[in-house]
Specification:
The protein is an alpha/beta fold. It has nine helices and eight strands. Strand 4, helix 6 and strand 5 form a beta-alpha-beta unit.
């Protein structure tokens, strides 16, 4: 069940893709189009391997694994161009997410985002869904050198909020990210995303809280 507005937590930090947003289909589409343009198909282990990497780490990994002629910067630029339209025009919040954020805000819980999306993309999708104003801090994985399996982005977000990590609860739909949350000294809350259902038992073991949706 959902933590009841998190006493004694003073802040709630949310992942976006698969946690607050119904957006996992975007990257499946982008991957298919990206590889198809090169006469390739994404391997079965590709999505799972890159899940908790930073945007740049994914680009580096992809260039090296498939011996692509492009630079990581060129690959990231293409991914941004392919995905931005979806985030601006089609990606929506998960059911109950807006109401839950508003309920937390009404209780004076500070809200933040910690996501692998780039800063421009995360701002765009929050604005298009009308919830940008609810957040006190936004953190992108392009601001840190290591992915979300490490505590870096969560510690950065706590500093932006001015809240001690022990007073924060963080939501994510990826098991590796829950490890990063715990390493940061925060309370972890696992969120069920159908694309990660095979990891749900492990996620429930890693996090003291687990939710199948914000409409509960």
């Amino acid at each position: 069940m959902l933590p009841a507005l998190f006493p004694p937590h003073k802040a709630a930090i949310f992942d976006l893709d698969g946690t607050l947003l119904e957006s996992m289909w975007v990257w499946q589409r982008v991957d298919l189009d990206f590889f198809a343009a090169r006469g390739l198909r994404p391997p079965e282990d590709y999505a799972e391997t890159i899940h908790s990497m930073t945007f740049r780490e994914v680009a580096l990994y992809t260039v090296e694994r498939f011996a692509l002629p492009e630079s990581p910067e060129e690959v990231m630029r293409e991914w941004n161009e392919r995905s931005l339209r979806f985030y601006r025009d089609e990606v929506k919040l998960k059911p109950g997410a807006r109401e839950y954020l508003e309920a937390l805000r009404a209780k004076r819980v500070k809200l933040a985002v910690a996501t692998n999306l780039t800063t421009h993309m995360l701002e765009t999708v929050l604005q298009s869904n009308g919830v940008f104003h609810l957040f006190d801090a936004l953190s992108s994985a392009d601001e840190v050198s290591r992915g979300k399996r490490f505590p870096d982005i969560y510690l950065l977000t706590a500093r932006k909020l001015g809240i001690a990590p022990c007073d924060c609860v963080a939501f994510d739909d990826v098991a590796a990210a829950l490890l990063g949350i715990r390493a940061a000294g925060m309370t972890a809350c696992a969120v069920l995303e159908p694309a990660s259902r095979q990891d749900w038992d492990e996620m429930r073991r890693l996090a003291p809280y687990a939710v199948t949706g914000f409409a509960e």
